[in-house]
Amino acid sequence: MANGLQRAIYNLANAVPLAAMTALFWYLEFRAWRIPMILLVSAAVVTGLFAMFFCYGKNNCSIKSITVSKVISKDPWLLTYMVAYVSPFAYMVIPDYHIVSFIVVVLMLILIFISAVMALPNILLFFVGYHFYEVETDTGVGDYLLISKRRRIRNRTNVKAVMRVFEKLLIDTKGDE
C-alpha cells in the first residue's frame, strides 16, 4: 500500500496540466519566462515522481481477490478537469479576478483533499490510456476507484483480482482488452 508521500504525489499530479496552462497564460500575458519555467519544471518533477511511484506501486502491491457487485465508469468525471485547466484564462472574462482569493480557494481544496479518504481519477493516467471505474464489492463497501487499461468493463464478474494502492484506490490486474 502506498505511503502518504505517494498519495500526495498521486493527487498533486492532477495539477500538472493546470501548471502547464498557467505557464502558457503567464507567458502570453507578461512575456516573461521565469514563472512559466518554474511552473513547467515543477510539473515535470511531479510527473516524473508520479510515473516512478505509480510504476513501483503497480509492480509491488500485493494482489487480492474481490467480488464486485457494481461497476460504473468514472471517465466522464475527467471532463470537469478541463474546466479547471482553462481557469487561468478567467481574467479575460472576470475583471475582478483576484489572485489572493484564488490562492485561498486552492489552499482550502488542498486541505480537503489531504484529509478526505477518497481517490480521484488521475488525468495523467487517462492521457496514457487508463480508464477509471467506481466499484462496489459484494460486502457492500463501495466508492472504490478502479484504474484499468481496459476500455470498457461491462460485466462486474470480469473484475476478480486487484491491487490496493491506498484506501479507496485499486488497480485492475487484468491486461488490455
Polypeptide structure, described:
The chain has 177 residues and is an alpha+beta fold. It has one domain. Helix content is 46%, strand content 18%. It contains 6 helices and 6 strands, in the order αααββαααββββ. A 6-stranded mixed sheet has the order 1-5-6-4-3-2, with no helix packed on it. A hairpin with a 2-residue loop joins β5 and β6. α1 packs across α3 and α2 runs antiparallel to α3. The model has no long low-confidence stretch (mean pLDDT 82).
List keywords for this structure.
6 strands, 177 residues, single chain, alpha+beta, 18% strand
* Number of alpha- plus pi-helical segments: 6
Q: How helix-rich are the residues, as a percent range?
A: 40-55%
Arithmetic mean pLDDT: 82
Count of distinct strands: 6
Strand order of the largest sheet: 1-5-6-4-3-2
The largest sheet, given as strand count, sense and whether it forms a barrel, is: 6 strands, mixed
Rough shape? elongated
Gyration radius from CA atoms, angstroms: 18 Å
Please sum up the structure shown.
This protein has helices at residues 4-12, 16-30, 34-60, 79-86, 99-115, 123-127; strands at 63-65, 68-73, 131-137, 144-148, 161-166, 169-172.
